[in-house]
Here is the input.
Amino acid sequence: MTSDAAAWEALRLSLWVACWATVLAVPLALWIAWILARRDFWGKSLLSALVHLPLVLPPVVTGYLLLMGFGRNAPLGRALDSIGITLAFHWSGAVLAAIIMGFPLMVRAMRLAIEAVDPKLEEAAATLGAPRIAIFGRVTLPLIAPGILAGAVMGFAKAMGEFGATITFVANIPGQTQTLPSAIWAALQIPGGENQAIAMVMMASVVAIGAVLISEALARRVAARIAGA
Amino acid sequence: MTVFAAASLRGALEEIAQAYPGDVSLSFGGSGTIARQIAAGAPADVVVLANTLWMDWLVEQGTHIIEAPQPVAANTLVLIGPKDAEPLAELNDLPARLATGRLAIGHRDAVPAGTYARQWLEAAGLWDEVKDRLAETDNVRAALAFVTRGAVPLGIVYASDAVAEPAVKVLWHAPASDHDTIAYPAAALTPVGKTFLHALTSPQAGLIFTAHGFQAVIQ
Here is the structure.
């Protein structure tokens, strides 16, 4: 494979991994954010700390913990393997690493949005006889939509840039786990590899700028809808 | 005194620094990272790298070097498996032993140990058969970790890495003629650094290198 083809392949894989990570993590992050914002229970601080742990730990350590938990020889890894989900040295492992690393950022943004919702609005809807599901869908969700969007963008961005946990957990296999950051890192480790690295950095920058523009446009539409509702 | 050194030398250099009369602070990293830091003006007195390519690059960049780079240690390459692995009858059995698993090596281009491993596999005529069954890592110790955690059945690391890890067993030694010489070139960047550079090639340092699985270069 030429270095150009390898760079495009890495870009394709990075987008693929980041999209999957975002799609899978948003509902889960919203649920955890909801629990943390609205519920009181024993161990709440512990759950919050656990969610934030990947933010504090060096990514290499997170990758190593994933290897111990989900590797081929680990119980969880074997259990998933037996139902047909292979994470070891597979792109799905890179998705898992991206989810774990981006999760605290997503939860944080969504939790703040949920906490900012005035409960009186929900209570008012309830006194008017709206069922709980309708209150969530027609009152709460539109109010927290900007927070969900912000969390999703953070998660996507983290997934695009994640390197340490991914390479430690699922290595650097072209087409499977060699994401753009891995490819950029590899190019920088070769004397004279700067030009190739710069080309890939430009690719990553275009994606990043594009993602920000799209999210800004989405945020404007959401804001307009809330204002109009 | 500040020494920038390749990460694979950690155990041995820490011991040598302890025995050295004077304060030595050690900063470890990948050879490429260190070389770029030095070229960007990092305040190091001595630099020790894991391959000659990066030392040549440093010299080409016009780095001010007090004394010409010289090898201070050498290493060899080994094929490893978990400590309960069956011995390998011949190297050609490697692909069969991998079965559906992967072979862990440092990244073929980015990590010196990976480049040597590729050269060895090419010389042994096994590269084409295993090149799509590799797990390439960002440093050689990560390849070692894949084997110790059982994530892969086999890996290729330095002999010094295998010495440091009791959970693995050496299954094959690479013939030195099958890959480039694995030398650790060192250079002094300041006059202070010169004395430490000489200490690295002393007989005492040689004993420490040998105990850590390296081959000593004594001058």
